[in-house]
Amino acid sequence: MRRIAGAGLIAVGLALLGWAGVSALHMKPSYVLSLSPASDAMRRELDAFKLAPDTGIQSVEISTPEERRPIANGLVARNGEHLTPLLWRNAVTDPIFFADSSPADLATVLGAIRDHAPIEAIVLAWWDLSRAIRLVARRDAPLDDPQARGLLIPIVWKDAVDQERARWGAGVTAQTGETFARFIEALTLPEKDGAARLAQLANDRKCFIAVHISDIWKAAAAAPAKLSLAYKDFPSSGVSHGVIKSAKQWLQDNHIDGGFAAEPMGGATRLHYFLRKDDSNTLIAKLLPFSTSNPAQLENFDLVYQLKGYWIYKLKP
User: Fold this and answer.
1) What is the pLDDT of residue 25?
2) Separation CA 161–CA 12 (nearest Å)
3) What DSSP designation does 254 have?
4) What distances in angstroms separate CA 134 from CA 87, 144, 167, one per listed residue?
5) What pLDDT, on the 0 to 100 scale, is given for residue 106?
6) d(CA 138, CA 119)
């Protein structure tokens, strides 16, 4: 079980990073992040995005002296200093910087956004997904963050937090960051109040909301006083009735009565759960498939598309 370790971890971004260590590795506080032009073979992995030929695609590798192979790698679209993650693979149990992302899944989701959101609409999403929406779906997704809140930076690399925030938040204005902070606040309010705040951000335009299961951790890191989150992994080949039954029993045995969501992760099922019952009433919890929510029956949102960890809604007028 991993828990958020306290307010001092706000600076590291994603609450998953309240690690006592990384489960698959005993990392020391040293790593190398390298960016290099992507080969033709690498670029072909992004064919589903149908990017313009002149789109700058770079390969990212994160390595440590203790491991012979990279512990994470990905492909990003680069425009000046601005980086848009399009593919990410982690070679360790807990994610490094970003959760795993498949170009095929992301391309499908972005295509669904393009199909459901008319050109005049606005799409609100976390900053990394917003960048992909602008680049690939070509919809107005204005949210971004110069602080790059939500990066999965291991606590043992805490000295690199400012460096990585500057890297991934480069080229974004402080005013844009203030708007993003309002988005985070909306996600931590009850559904009705959060919907009203999102409508204000949309400025009376048709508004769509795109969220991913990992956003719950990002929001918890940005607002630890409002969201207290933890997780536990259960061995399995996927989410099953037996695993859910075991998870419920474990929560009961440990006197945890907050909502939970189960996510298949390779040969395990990860149980994301709230340490406080009232946190289940926040908007972000309602938009995601927690045990205390029903995304298909929200009062202020219509579910228009869902794929794996992605959920797309239309904000009701």
Assistant:
1) 45
2) 6
3) T
4) 16, 11, 19
5) 97
6) 8
pLDDT tens, residue by residue, 297-315: 999 999 999 999 999 999 9
- 87: tokens are 């593919």
Map tokens 């589903």 to a residue: 48
Strand partners, 58: 37, 76
Q: Model confidence at 2, in pLDDT bands (50, 70, 90)?
A: very low
Q: Extract the tokens encoding 76.
A: 């990003």
244 DSSP 8-state letter: H
Rounded distance between C-alpha atoms, residue 247 and residue 232, angstroms: 9
**Token couple for 115:** 């199909």
Q: Does the global pTM surpass 0.90? A: no
Beta-bridge partners for 226: none
b (16+ CB within 10 A) / e for 84-115: bbbbbbbebebbbbbbbbebeebbbbbbbbbe
Residue 235 phi/psi, 5° resolution?
-60, 135
Tokens of 11: 């600076």
Report the alpha-carbon angle 138-169-212, nearest 5.
Answer: 55
